[in-house]
Amino acid sequence: MEIVFLIVIGLIVFLVLLWQLTLLLTSMLTSPTVYANDKAIEDSLKLAGLKRGESVVDLGCGNAKSLIIAAKKFGAKGIGVEISPYCYFLARWRVFVLGESKNIKIIYGDFTRAEKYLKSADVVYLYLLNATLAKIEKWFFSSIGPKTRVVSLAFVFPNKKPIKSTETFNLRKKTIARLYRK
Ligand SMILES: C[S@@+](CC[C@H](N)C(=O)[O-])C[C@H]1O[C@@H](n2cnc3c(N)ncnc32)[C@H](O)[C@@H]1O
């Protein structure tokens, strides 16, 4: 009996450590996993003029919060791409539990290999660091469609001028969401 208890405890400790390690590694190698506030996401999607039936892509979707808001509040369909195994499973789980599996698809992997989802997207929502946006800028704007509206929360593309912006609140601070086009 004691041995079973020890195995279960050992397994739990192992899973928690694995979870923390994947979070640490993906944060070190990519953009850190910080989830935006609901209000900031909603204001960003409003800025993008997201409408019922349109599609939204979140590159680095974290826990799929933006896609769930897009589906529940805007009636949109969503695709999220996520490289952190922990966030990927969490996003899938949240989408399932919140009954949005029909409207939201979560893809595991590096978003720089996900251009096929960008061409037909009506809206792309981004919450990535300035350094990440600088790295992907050229590839990203050549991958999106001519009509895709791109909204970036808090962070900016270095060489691209936003066509509109709005002030919002994120992580208890005033911040800006910016709208871009190809
Ligand atoms: C700042 S969080 C944003 C989460 C979510 N989009 C939001 O607004 O709350 C950035 C996310 O991007 C993911 N990420 C970073 N680089 C990535 C890449 N190359 N491919 C896929 N996901 C990536 C990270 O794992 C992290 O979950």
TrEMBL record:
<dbReference type="InterPro" id="IPR029063">
    <property type="entry name" value="SAM-dependent_MTases_sf"/>
</dbReference>
<dbReference type="GO" id="GO:0032259">
    <property type="term" value="P:methylation"/>
</dbReference>
<dbReference type="GO" id="GO:0016279">
    <property type="term" value="F:protein-lysine N-methyltransferase activity"/>
</dbReference>
<keyword id="KW-0949">S-adenosyl-L-methionine</keyword>
<protein>
    <recommendedName>
        <fullName>Methyltransferase domain-containing protein</fullName>
    </recommendedName>
</protein>
<dbReference type="InterPro" id="IPR041698">
    <property type="entry name" value="Methyltransf_25"/>
</dbReference>
<dbReference type="Pfam" id="PF13649">
    <property type="entry name" value="Methyltransf_25"/>
</dbReference>
<keyword id="KW-0808">Transferase</keyword>
<dbReference type="InterPro" id="IPR026170">
    <property type="entry name" value="FAM173A/B"/>
</dbReference>
<keyword id="KW-0489">Methyltransferase</keyword>
<feature type="domain" description="Methyltransferase">
    <location>
        <begin position="56"/>
        <end position="130"/>
    </location>
</feature>
